[in-house]
Design brief:
Radius of gyration: 24 Å
CATH architecture: Orthogonal Bundle
CATH superfamily: MetI-like
Helix content: over 70%
Shape: flat
Largest sheet: 2 strands, antiparallel
Distance between the termini: 33 Å
CATH topology: MetI-like fold
Structural class: mainly alpha
Number of helices: 13
Number of domains: 1
Strand order of the largest sheet: 1-2
Length: 298
């Protein structure tokens, strides 16, 4: 066996050894829970009794008799449809702007800080802004300016709480994607831009469309997956702002519905069925995004 072959085999062995700890943790805390949840979704199970096989009864009840599930599904899709794309685009644009100015580290920290702070804590801060009484920051400003006569019920009016949740979700969810985008911008090869200018690229917008976006597909994919996971898993923000399920069930989400059955009513079988539906939705949208942003050979 040649020295080159021995070196490659040693490299492969080292790679496997480094992968084993992650592989074990991924198997125990990701793959195994998904499989167990899938199996439990076909059972009637609580912590007080052994699982009883009920086939597809949980799914049948979920789609035909559980009206709150359909409400939670609609709310989740609404939150995801607005907060996901808006947060994704804004985090990309903010990263693009910050990358081109001075004091990048300072502004990056200021922008990223909310994403590493507890969603519950940040929602309490935002609750001060959107408080439905006259002492809330926004209501007080509008009253002092003479724009309204009575306080707006931001967190008690079903027609307004959705917009509030979307605003807070976008603000809190931009950090992770922003960090990936900023890293991508900072790793761009300056020679590529110089060559593009010689070939006819005249301004920053053309650079962004024709050079930056195509070269940043891996970061765009990573940011998209994070955004999808966060937007479909929204729970803490609406729960803190308006409680769950909120006024006229306006803030009830799939995660909130799951928590109600699995951890309040201790119906783990039915809760697992809701979790499987949520997982399937997230996985399906993720695959679509992967097909769009992934490389052709993947």
């Amino acid at each position: 066996m040649s020295k080159k072959r021995k070196f490659k085999d040693r490299e492969g062995l080292v790679a496997v050894l480094f992968f084993i700890p992650f592989g074990i943790l991924f198997l125990l805390f990701t793959i195994l829970p998904v499989v167990i949840s899938l199996v439990l979704s076909f059972t009637n199970y609580s912590v007080l009794q052994s699982p009883i096989w009920v086939s597809i009864d949980n799914y049948n009840y979920l789609f035909t008799q559980d009206d709150l599930f359909l409400v939670a599904l609609k709310n989740t899709l609404t939150f995801a449809m607005f907060s996901g794309p808006i947060g994704y685009v804004m985090s990309f644009l903010v990263a693009w702007v910050i990358n081109s100015i001075h004091f990048k580290k300072f502004f990056s920290l200021m922008f990223y800080a909310p994403s590493i702070t507890s969603g519950l804590a940040m929602s309490v801060v935002w609750l001060y802004f959107f408080s439905p009484d006259r002492y809330g920051f926004i209501n007080n400003f509008l009253l002092q300016a003479g724009l309204i006569d009575t306080p707006i019920l931001w967190t008690q009016d079903p027609s307004k709480i959705v917009a509030v949740v979307v605003i807070v979700s976008v603000w809190m969810g931009m950090g992770n994607g922003f960090l990936a985008f900023l890293a991508g911008f900072q790793n761009m090869d300056a020679e590529v831009y110089e060559a593009a200018r010689i070939d006819g690229i005249r301004n920053k917008f053309q650079e962004l469309i024709y050079i930056t976006v195509p070269m940043m597909k891996p970061m765009l994919l990573f940011g998209a997956i994070n955004t999808i996971s966060g937007s479909f898993g929204v729970y803490e923000i609406p729960m803190t702002l308006a409680g769950s399920p909120g006024p006229e069930n306006a803030t009830l989400t799939l995660v909130g519905h799951l928590n109600d059955y699995a951890f309040t009513r201790m119906d783990l079988g039915y809760g697992s069925a809701i979790a499987v539906i949520l997982f399937a939705m997230t996985f399906l949208v993720g695959r679509i995004v992967f097909k769009v942003l992934g490389s052709k050979d993947e």
